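Table S2 (text version). Query chain:
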Amino acid sequence: MGAELQGVRKQMVKHGMGDKELWITETGYATGRCVDMKPITAAVLGKLNLDKDNIPVALIRDTEYYYCSDRLNCDRENFFSGKKNFHEISLKELKTLSPEQYPLLMLAPNESFPMDYRNELLNYVKEGGTLFVPGGGIPLYFNLRKQNGAVVQEVAGEWIQKMFHIGWEAFWTNPQAPASTHVQEIASGFSKDIPFPDVVGRYLSKRNLKPGDELIPVVTAYSKDRSYSAPVAAIYKFNSELKGNIVVFTWMDAMESVSRETQGKFLPRTYLIALSSGVDKLFWYSFRSMGENESREHHFGIVERDLTPKPAYYAYKTLTEHCPPHSTRPVLSKKGEFYIASWSKPDGDKVYAIWCFQGSKSGKFRIEGVVKGVKDHLGNRLPAVGDVMQISDSITYLTGDSALSVMCE
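Corresponding structure-token output:
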């Protein structure tokens, strides 16, 4: 987001609008609940004899490209039993990932992938590996590319789907395809009692299959008048130069929510990244959740429908206490996996906000000046800090006098 905002500011300057304020009038994270996906995952993997608990699942966690199979807007526990063994790898480790040792690789539940690693991913499928795309739309639709120290997203093009023998369509490529539909049915060969998300708007096709390949529908979607139908959950089973499988769930709404805890972590990070990137005002969507059903649109609030605060409410309260009106604009820096935002309050006190992209990591910091207080992102007091701090994906605030300086070594 920071790179995109800086790009917007450059365009404003280029076109003579550099003196105008930049506002984000709507941003947020929904906390809608996803249906339990374990039954449908088990049913699909059962068709491939990959549903046993002793078969491990490889997950990608790569901080270089900010690409993660889960833990951002998807929890592995919603797809697999608690008895599963998981093996986390970086994108560079794809090259040596053995389908025999790890026959199942879960991709991130979105439409993006760093195409710099497309050949490594393809070789995994060629050698018999199974890719599991747990949702989020069209697989491999966007390329993640590094640019000026950031990662940007761009449309990859049809060539990547052809490479992996998969196909898709949507309302903008096929006028017969509905923009979204609630009319879905489980395919023959699967239990009719298996739950799945309620709405879908991306569809799978046989367009790029090669001789020997097949597309096995799991859930089929229909237009309201049933004149159009296409799989929205399916198995691409290969028997061409590719010898593995690709399991695809295209549901997006279910993958566009986060947990209440994650919403609370992301809120202050979003504000500090935006403010440090030249944004003057940011409006969170929304204060109160509608909460009338499980769709994500009803769960963007930082309080529930009955006004019960979510963690994000306390995160917002804590942020405004540390960065009140007339504070200086935050300055954001990055060292390794650590992000450090710093600013001065109107009374002259200095504030540092520190976090890492995902998970938790120990780091060595050089702290100069007087630290008056340490709090977590929800406003809870933390013990005094030393040269070594355990930093997580939720912000740690350090407040001190005007001479306070915090640097990552």
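Notes on Table S2: The longest helix spans residues 260-276. Helices lie at 2-14, 38-47, 118-126, 158-163, 260-276, 311-322.
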